[in-house]
Amino acid sequence: KTAKVWDANTGKELLTLTGHEGEVWSADYSPDGQRIVTASWDKTAKVWNADTGQELLTLKSHDNRVLSAAYSPDGQRIVTASEDYTAKVWDAKTGKELFTLIGHKGYDAGGWDDGVWSAAYSPDGERIVTASKGKTAKVWDAQTGTELLTLTGHDGGVWSAAYSPDGQRIVTASADKTAKVWDTQTGIELF
User: Fold this and answer.
1) pLDDT by residue (tens digit) across 39-58?
2) Is the distance from CB of 59 to CB of 70 less than 8 angstroms?
């Protein structure tokens, strides 16, 4: 139910971020280092002052656990991923929900919870990649929410997806015990 901030050089605990009512699964700094966003099983994401630990915003609109939250490269937006099969894009300053990324489908996981497990921005902030228990990752236009590509080829749920630093590739990690690398323009599996 908490997140902690640590000194990277000494390992000393600096802050405890207290306010969630469920497990905290993800944390990310804003690009300027002034804020932190956390994602929780309480169906919310929260934005905190990175220096004081003060809670600034609660992002609340998901219908299930929020598993991932990340800032856009310019720090103006936040994307959250949830077990409600959606990702949502928020204004990072006001907490206003801007749009919902809908397109991932459920998958019978034999008792495990389903949904969208991670979301991340491309380095230029123009695209978002989401990873789903439904064995796919999807690429979206970060300004409009339009689905651009579906990355299909895993035999298990896709736990996470991330862009390469140059934005030309996406790596996905799956329950099928593999990681795959994809071309971001075509969606073709490279290896």
Assistant:
1) 999 999 999 999 999 999 99
2) no
Q: The tokens of 144 are what?
A: 């409009």
Calpha distance 172→181 (Å, rounded): 7
* pLDDT at site 134: 87
Longest dimension (CA), the chain: 45
CA distance 71 to 31: 7
As a whole-number percent, the residues of the chain with pLDDT over 70 amount to 95
Angle at 91 between CA 88 and CA 94, to 5 degrees: 130
Q: Tell me whether residue 11 is exposed, middle or buried, using C-beta atoms within 10 angstroms of its C-beta: 0 to 12, 13 to 18, 19 or more.
A: exposed
One-letter identity of residue 49: N
How far is 60 from 36, CA to CA, in rounded Å? 16
Residue 2 Cα distances to 27, 46, 138, 180, angstroms: 10, 11, 30, 32
What pLDDT, on the 0 to 100 scale, is given for residue 105? 76
Strand residue runs (E) in 75-122: 77-82, 86-91, 97-102, 116-121
Q: pTM of the predicted model, to two decimals?
A: 0.94
110 pLDDT band, cuts 50/70/90, is very low
φ, ψ for residue 133, nearest 5 deg: -65, -15
